[in-house]
Specification:
479 residues; mainly alpha; 3-stranded antiparallel β-sheet; 20 helices; binds carboxymethyl coenzyme *A
């Protein structure tokens, strides 16, 4: 990180540093964000950790027709269920495993994030999400996800400096927005603009070069707020607002979203803090659909910006990051607490595929710790904003209460997930529905780049190429 922050000018041939130099004069005189960590060096626990070992449990696969057996290698991680290596099945037995939706399949080994769905535990690099939410900030968490350890004060300053120096958007890239209709969904614009970054940074996309990978990672985390805010401004028909290097990450995000050139705008620190907390909670979630998409696309060796764009697109779906937008739409449609029973009846009847959005999770079967934190945060933020009786929040609380007593949700272990309450806070901050998933994408960019880095650095990386159970026509002649 230090090397990148002190990088010579030749690295930034994209124009970032030139642009900053032009606008700001001597970039080294620009002040650092205000919340720099003041602690001294951290005593990193660098003792050798046994990450992966053979499990004591043994498994064997037996073909009951032929009697042929194979011993299956079983591996234990540091915590969590063992995995059975089924790589030899095809070679030994000529069969594949079948697990649509990856219900019981670990697609990779990873050291970044751990979830225990029954216990409601979420750890980033071993640190509980509750502690990070309470004591850390989004950029420090991003560093942790990327590097594996919390930074000391100098490391954090250096990282923040680097992120701040990469926030600007190339002017040619900014012109791409004009090709979009004013009512284009911002996720469509963000996916396209992120993919277009691949056309701007040919100098630093050698995925086998550590430094190039690091610069790419910093650019993604740095530029996504700028790209996202520009999508919002384009929809409004307002001029794009340049990033401000004197603001911290989330204050700058709010500044780019809400300020206009014709009058002063002061970021409310409470808003910035609330956004920062939401970003921490959304920063990573191990092998979720969008992260797996980034890994799968990236495993081909494609341009990393293209891989991140694929992740943005995967996140957009309502079963994943698009749920936050869908929750608010749902709450507005329900409209009143008196309509909750009628709505839940439709959900339980599965009429027209109606789901209780923001409920249920593939991994959490007890509670989602992020939802617990966000629900509490809603109380605090809305109270401080003078919206303690926010009707949508009251409706959401009542909906949760009724659903959690209902046999349908109890028997299926369906609980509020991270997206059930996040939209209420975004809305209280003045962020429109269509931008909710974009905000999620900004936060998840930290996880995406951490996973992409981990995968590319793995000497055993292979192209991700699933197999299938073919059920189409057998060979036939064209007549
Ligand atoms: N409302 C009503 N029924 C549900 C819901 C829901 N939100 N979620 C699951 N079910 C039912 C589902 O119909 C099925 O019932 P049955 O056994 O009768 O067929 C059972 O619960 C199991 O559901 P599933 O779809 O097999 O579970 P899954 O692990 O494949 O899906 C999920 C997980 C998150 C996609 C799903 O719970 C869902 O669609 N939730 C609503 C969308 C949502 O909030 N997504 C955000 C997820 S958290 C943030 C993120 O990942 O980005």
């Amino acid at each position: 990180v230090r090397a990148l922050a002190d990088a010579p000018r030749k690295v930034d041939v994209d124009g970032d540093r030139r642009a900053h130099s032009h606008i700001l004069g001597d970039a080294t005189q620009v002040s650092l964000p205000v919340w720099s960590r003041v602690t001294g060096s951290r005593n990193h626990d660098r003792q050798a950790i046994e990450w992966k070992r053979m499990s004591n449990d043994k498994y064997q696969l037996k073909n009951l027709t032929t009697g042929k057996t194979s011993d299956l290698e079983t591996l234990s991680g540091t915590v969590g269920p063992d995995v059975i290596n089924i790589g030899s099945l095809w070679r030994d037995h000529g069969v594949f495993t079948f697990d649509p939706g990856f219900l019981a399949t670990a697609s990779t080994e990873s050291r970044i994030t751990f979830i225990d769905g029954d216990a409601g535990t979420l750890l980033y690099r071993g640190y509980p999400i509750e502690q990070l939410a309470e004591q850390s900030n989004f950029l420090e968490v991003s560093y942790l996800l990327l590097k594996g350890e919390l930074p000391d004060a100098a490391e954090l300053d250096s990282f923040k400096h680097s992120i701040t120096r990469h926030t600007m958007m190339n002017q040619s890239l900014a012109r791409l927005y004009s090709g979009f209709h004013h009512n284009a969904h911002p996720m469509a614009m963000v996916a396209a603009i992120v993919a277009s970054l691949a056309a701007f940074y040919h100098d630093t996309t050698n995925i086998n070069d550590d430094r190039h990978r690091e610069i790419f990672s910093h650019r993604i985390i740095a530029k996504l707020p700028t790209i996202a805010a520009a999508a919002y401004k384009h929809a409004l028909g307002q001029p794009f607002v340049y990033p401000r290097n004197d603001l911290d990450y989330c204050s700058n995000m709010l500044h780019m979203l809400f300020s206009v050139p014709c009058e002063p705008y002061t970021v409310d620190p409470l808003h910035a803090k609330a956004l920062d907390l939401l970003f921490i909670l959304h920063a990573d979630h191990e092998q979720n659909a969008s992260t797996s998409t980034v890994r799968l696309a990236g495993s081909t060796g494609c341009n990393p910006y293209a891989a991140i764009s694929a992740g943005v697109s995967a996140l957009w779906g309502p079963a994943h990051g698009g749920a936050n937008e869908a929750v608010l739409d749902m709450l507005e449609k329900i409209g009143d607490v008196s309509k909750v029973p009628e709505f839940l009846t439709r959900v339980k009847d599965k009429a027209g595929g109606v789901r209780l959005m923001g409920f249920g999770h593939r991994v959490y079967k007890n509670f989602d710790p992020r939802a617990t934190i966000i629900r509490e945060m809603c109380h605090q933020v809305l109270a401080k904003l003078g919206q303690a009786n926010n009707p949508l929040f009251e409706l959401a609380l009542r909906l949760e209460e009724i659903a959690l007593k209902d046999e349908y949700f109890i028997s299926r272990k369906l609980y509020p997930n991270v997206d059930f309450y996040s939209g209420i806070i975004y809305r209280a901050l003045g962020i429109p529905h269509s931008m909710f998933t974009v905000m999620f994408a900004i936060a998840r960019s930290a996880g995406w780049v951490a996973h992409w880095q981990e995968m590319i650095a793995d000497p055993e990386m292979k192209i991700a190429r699933p197999r299938q159970l073919y059920t189409g026509p057998v060979k036939r002649d064209y007549v």
